[in-house]
Amino acid sequence: AQSVTQLGSHVSVSEGALVLLRCNYSSSVPPYLFWYVQYPNQGLQLLLKYTSAATLVKGINGFEAEFKKSETSFHLTKPSAHMSDAAEYFCAVSEAGANSKLTFGKGITLSVRP
Amino acid sequence: DVKVTQSSRYLVKRTGEKVFLECVQDMDHENMFWYRQDPGLGLRLIYFSYDVKMKEKGDIPEGYSVSREKKERFSLILESASTNQTSMYLCASSTNPGGTGNTIYFGEGSWLTVV
Q1: A94 — contact with chain B (CB < 8 Å)?
Q2: What is the SS3 assignment for B83?
Q3: Which of A49, A105, B21, B29 is an S-S bond match for A4, by CB 3.0 to 4.6 Å?
């Protein structure tokens, strides 16, 4: 069975500071990993995904994530936070043959201080 | 652009009512999903469908049913709404084949309040 752990529920950074949102996964087969972002009162938007090509994945809005099999991690980073990055972020995992079914973490709310 | 449209953004229903949440996608996707989102619990899968008239239970199907009579439309049904079903409901779709990390596209969500 697949699962995702996002430790903590809230991260606060200053504008211009590094953003680091952690995600660890559990999967019995090689996983596909995703980060989604949700802005207030909206649905989820794909930030980036790992599908067994390059381990460092670049996404939209300057975000990137690195797949580390040895650590079963897929942490999301951005070098310099912007006020518009304030949102909720979800890590998700799916497995081959699972009809794209995603299992989500509980989400992390990112706040950006001026 | 892929569009997943949920017919109602905000609904208020009474306990015991039958509730229909409708979802339509315009990209000819095979797979469609209904998730429920609650604070601190993330998104949990209620039901999904990988073909017309096909459905499979997700992690929390109790109290819900679904209908997929046409490829583009996937309905979530609450047979007898209860207050613990007050939540945000998200519909999503994706194409096949699964297993290649296909992106799932989400609608904007339906906020359901059961009073």
Answers
A1: yes
A2: helix
A3: A105
- The rounded distance, in Å, linking the Cα atoms of A106 and A82 is 23
Q: In this predicted model, what pLDDT tens digit does every residue of B32-87 receive, in sequence order?
A: 999 999 988 899 999 999 889 899 999 999 999 999 999 999 999 999 999 999 99
**Residue B90 structure tokens:** 């998200």
Backbone angles phi, psi at B53, to 5 degrees: 65, 5
The answer to whether residues A26 and A103 touch, using CB atoms and an 8 Å cutoff, is no
Sequential DSSP letters for chain A: --EEE---SEEEEETTS-EEE--EEE-SS-EEEEEEEE-TTS-EEEEEEE-SS-SEEE-GGG-EEEEETTTTEEEEEESS--GGG-EEEEEEEEETTSTT--EE---EEEEEE-
Residues 6+ apart with CB under 8 A from A27: A2, A3, A72, A93, A95
* Interface contact B101-A104, CB threshold 8 A: no
- A104/B contact by beta carbon, under 8 A: yes
Strands (E), B40-86: 42-49, 56-57, 65-70, 73-78
Distance from the B5 Cα atom to the nearest Cα atom in chain A, whole angstroms: 10
